[in-house]
Design brief:
Radius of gyration: 16 Å
Low-confidence stretches: 174-178
Strand content: 35-45%
Mean pLDDT: 93
Distance between the termini: 45 Å
Number of strands: 7
Order of helices and strands: EHEEHEEHEEHH
Number of domains: 1
Length: about 180
């Protein structure tokens, strides 16, 4: 069995939660990063859903590819499935990603299931802001998730206009219990 590659595009970039042998900038073609998933567990509840990132059809996405050594492969996959497949709004897939050096590897990643009831699709900015401002789940405030993700994207040179706008709108607000 070989090493495992995992593609992260959101919180996996700044909080992978697993041991890895290396992490490198990477690009996935055919899908893009989008705040398109209503969170009923990690960053919201069914009564007050949050909004989290998913990979949605079209375009491309810059992120991070993590190489997992073969001995850690099964443990990391178990961890990722427990983390990402809580409500099955994501589908685990293997996609080719291009590493910074031009090498293409097959990476495990999680794409949105557009037929799932938690798929929000494309929302207006004001709708996104309202959901993010007013939700929290077992992993904390949705606001904190968005700010941490926006900060990390900026730190690695990834420009995401919606995340930049949201961070500006949320930056002066303090987290609150919901």
């Amino acid at each position: 069995m070989a090493d495992l590659w995992v593609f992260g595009y959101g919180s996996l970039m700044w909080r992978p939660g697993f041991a890895y042998a290396e992490s490198v900038p990477a690009r996935l073609h055919g899908e893009h990063r989008a705040l398109c998933i209503l969170s009923f567990v990690h960053r919201g509840t069914e009564a007050k859903p949050g909004l989290v990132l998913g990979l949605d059809k079209g375009g491309s996405c810059r992120g991070v590819a993590f190489r997992i050594s073969e001995p850690d492969r099964d443990d990391v996959l178990t961890y990722l499935r427990e983390r990402e497949l809580v409500t099955n709004v994501y589908r685990e897939v293997i996609r080719p990603v291009r590493l910074a050096d031009g090498t293409v590897v097959a990476a495990t990643t999680y794409v949105v299931d557009r037929s799932h009831r938690q798929y929000a699709g494309k929302l207006r900015r004001e709708e996104v802001l309202e959901l993010v401002r007013n939700s929290a789940g077992v992993s904390g405030h949705n606001r904190d998730y968005v700010l941490a993700t926006a900060e990390h994207l900026a730190a690695v040179g990834i420009e995401d206009r919606l995340m930049i706008w949201l961070a500006g709108m949320l930056g002066g607000e303090s987290g609150r219990s919901v």
